[in-house]
Amino acid sequence: MVSLPRLITGLVTISSLSCHAQFNDYTDHYVNNEGVNIHYVSRGDGPTLVFLHGFPDFWFTWKYQMDQLSKDYNVIGIDLRAYNQSEGPSETDGYQMTKLMSDILVVIKDVGNDQVTLIGNDWGGAIAWQIATYYPNQVNGLIACNIPHPKSLSNYLNAHPETADYTKKNESPHAIDYWNIERLMDTSGAVDQELSSAYMDAFERSNIQGMLNYYKASYPKPSQVTGNNTALERKIKCPVLMLHGMKDSAFPPGTLNDHWMWIKNSFTLHTFPDAGHFIQREAPEKVLYYIQQWLKANVKKAK
To answer: Are 98 and 130 a contacting pair, CB within 8 Å?
Structure first.
């Protein structure tokens, strides 16, 4: 969801093999969801972990964690609709949250698992929160990386509407002219990395208008309306881990408030004072460590 200046991120250091060789250990899959082909990759055996990326990114953002976790788990990396090798309609209605959730549910069905652990950053995390809320029987754990619960985010935006100002250029009629490949590269933080060509290729394949439609269709708008405290709130039943870089200007520390109010199970929060929005790439080893420890304690022990 974020639009930031260039980030000097810690994209995992990989040997100087060709870009294509880096994907050889992963199996490609395609599944059709009401006419939209969704691409995902898989590797490993064991309990299934589903990784979801945000804007502007693709499944590769999780490769460091996926490489390591595939020793004990079946890791699934999805390209969200409109990104990389996944198709995406140009119309805004194709990016309503129900559509975004259905893509992930179709992949989960294709994988053949009754329950999975969802791990998401940014838009991927926003989708994961919703699936965990409305499809509890399919989720045995949720890991949210720099993405607050939608209720916490909407409450914060109501009090601090200026926080969402960065989204305006994504929703303007001229957004498609602003977001060229160079700006997507710059915002992704991958422009200076060894495998920046992988990101360049992914963005050239992506439907940029579709990427922007996420904001038009599903980003919570500051309303300045006080929430109805008597309204029924569905609480998340699975255990939740949050990892949050505190330098994230899109989701500042205040968006972390009150998460325990919407989680019925255990809730664990780790903050990273020196990391920003793309925490999985800015602090890859620490993110991996906390994910591994949490999975062993809360979901299912590795083999």
So the answer is: no
Average pLDDT score over residue span 99-121: 95
* Paired strand residues for 117: 49, 141
Structural Rg of the chain based on CA atoms: 18
Q: With contact defined as beta carbons under 8 Å apart, do 175 and 169 qualify?
A: yes
pLDDT, position 220: 81
Domain extents in the chain: 27-222+235-298
Single-letter residue type at 25: D
Q: pLDDT digits over 278-291, tens only? A: 999 999 999 999 99
Which among 134, 45, 131, 115 has a CA at the least distance from the CA of 80? 131
Q: What are the distances in angstroms from CA 119 to CA 21, 48, 59, 234, 295?
A: 25, 11, 11, 20, 11
CA 211 to CA 215: how far, in whole Å? 8
In whole angstroms, give the CA distance from residue 111 to residue 90. Answer: 27
Please give the class, per CATH, of domain 27-222+235-298. Answer: alpha beta
Instruction: List the strands of the sheet with 74-78, edge to edge.
Output: 27-33, 36-43, 74-78, 48-52, 116-121, 139-145, 240-245, 267-272
* 3 state SS of 137: helix
| Structure tokens that stand for 141 in this block | 């754990």
Residue in this structure with the two tokens 């260039």, named with its chain if needed: 6
Tokens of 242: 């949050």
Chain segment 31-58, per-residue pLDDT in tens: 999 999 999 999 999 999 999 999 999 9
Element (H, E) at 243: strand 240-245
For residue 242, list its beta bridge partners. Answer: 144, 269
